[in-house]
Here is the input.
Amino acid sequence: MGHENAGIKNICGKESVKFMNVIEIDHLTYSYPGASEPTLKDVSIQIEKGDFLAIVGNNGCGKSTLCKTLNGLIPQFISGDFEGTVLACGLDTKQTDVGVLAQKVGYVYQDFENQIIRPTVLDDASYACLNYAMPDYLERGKKALEQCGLMGRENDYIWQLSGGQTHLLALAGAVSLQPEVLILDEPIAQLDPMHADRIYGVLKELNEKHGKTIIVIEHHTEYIADYCKHVTLMKDGKIQWTLPADASLRRVEELQACNIFPPQVTIAAHRMQEKEQLAENISLPTTVEEGKAFFVPKPGRRAVAAGVHDDQREVVAEFCDVGIAYRSVKGNPHVVFSGLDLKIRKGDNIALIGSNGAGKSTLMKMLVGLLKPASGEVLVNGHSIRSLKTEVLSRKISMVYQNPEDMFIKDSIAGDIAYAMEVRGIPESGRRTQELLQRFRLTELGERDGRLLSGGQMRRASLAIGIALNPEILLLDEPTANLDIATRKEIIRTLEEMKSITETVVIATHDMQLVCEWADRIIVLSEGKVAADGGRDEIFSNQEVVKKAGIRPPEIFSMGKALCPEALCYTIDDFLNQFERRTNANENS
Here is the structure.
């Protein structure tokens, strides 16, 4: 990979052999306690020093489990049946103390907030080094903050950071120990495009300038195309292959069979290849830049932006000159909204978008009464929520949280669905529960604990809980976060089916494909105001709003715009209707 061999010392202080492979896994098989079959099955893989590797695969294939063997978490803290060997930087992860391994292999978990444990930024970034009694712990913390783009925030409290900055702080805490390897599990799943770019920009610099080996578990293949060097595909607990990133992303059919969504640009080219029965050796584009040489507009095909229309439907919720701020231990209160005016109409399918910290979750929490505005009024069916009892409001509006685990309080899904109805004395709650289990394809899982289900099953269960009381308005916070493409499509299908149950739905999301496929109205929040409100054409054609709010349309939209400024392509089908393959494009590749 262009990096020189590096010797290390083992825990006995003896010089070990020099190595090129920073990770070596040999015939690893692992089963969780009580599991009926292994999660990892005879896995063997070598990762070179200085690589930038993406591990991909559908939910439940063993990606996170594999990575947790690299720092000794498995099997030293998570027990189970462990066979084979795992060497990280020449150290046996089964035999080496995890404190030693942590200085070699840094890990930023999917729930990275749990890694933030100190009140101020520098305090947290340097805490791991302090824990190891390193005399230069503060200097190491400052250096890590500089490497992660957080210089100048050293004395800030952690609650003053945005979601993206908090993720960078978790990364800085790992970087401060100066490990050889950095592992990040779904690093951008909950981030807006601006912060996602920043995270990957930091990882690129750590890889290229500081020689760190980077391993990411990632579903966003457009970032894999732009940043990663290699890709490892996992399926059913096994390694299928490891290939250069561009070659791997061109395996469209194989990836889709494993519920992985290649870049939209690549899928569009692949569909053209199939339709035209082109030779298999044609090199498909994997980025927008490569797509410029592959596609051309069809003669005479142009999309026209839809006009703005006045909607006279009934208003079911309204924000009238609303202001809200969070008190701060240090400095002035953080103002989230100031003079917010917004109407939600009956039958709306609203996508609420904006950068991390724009106020999407805050707006939803005000609607369900969890937060009270400091000024102005929030109205539901013309009544101020200040005057509505919690029981009445909960029958009108329901919110499904970003983490579905927060919806589970009983020992079974059936119990969770029935709970809200039972405490309100709603008749025939048992029959209603069975109907919901059947509607959301959960009948066979009804007696299972919701916290032990797969990601997609948990999402469906949380939706069933959310609509148990037949709310007039349903609020969903990031319903497709951390999901593979198959599970994501399943959730979109479920949302379509719910139109017959709940007329008005508001979704807060960074998932622009979900926005374009599902929403009929898009509300952009920025700097405490509604920056834009309209349909897809109105929002994504407004470059000033897109830039100001830090949002990004789907990749296929950007591909269309790069080829024709007037193009409006929200789906691959839209794109294929407007563009064709450039004659003789990449035929020799």
Observations:
- The chain has 23 helices and 22 strands.
- Residues 1-18 have pLDDT under 50 and may be disordered.
